[in-house]
Design goal:
By secondary structure, the chain is an alpha+beta fold. The protein is built from two helices and five strands. It is elongated, with a radius of gyration of 17 Å. The N and C termini lie far apart (about 35 Å).
Length: about 110
Amino acid sequence: MPAADDTVGEAIWPTRIPEDYFFTTERLAQEVGIEIHQAESIVEVLVQEGLLQPWFAPQCPNCDEVWAAYLGEDDIPQSVHCPFCGEGTPENMMEFYLVYERLKTLLD
């Protein structure tokens, strides 16, 4: 009998991927019950397959709202204007998160 392989676990069915259109790898790992590095590998494959779109999401230091806004680091302007409170903040004063948008349901 072959040795157990701890890199292979139970199947992650499409219905277990977070329902929200935007999510982080940390949330995926938590909801599915896997390690973050495993979630990152899964997300990488789903991006390559065209099922997810990565976005940079700034968090406004004035009102704490987070929104998906930029497809790449080169798209981030020097001053980021919050669509919620209207305040402008220098890019280097913003915190950014990498979030993923569901482009299609995985059952389509």
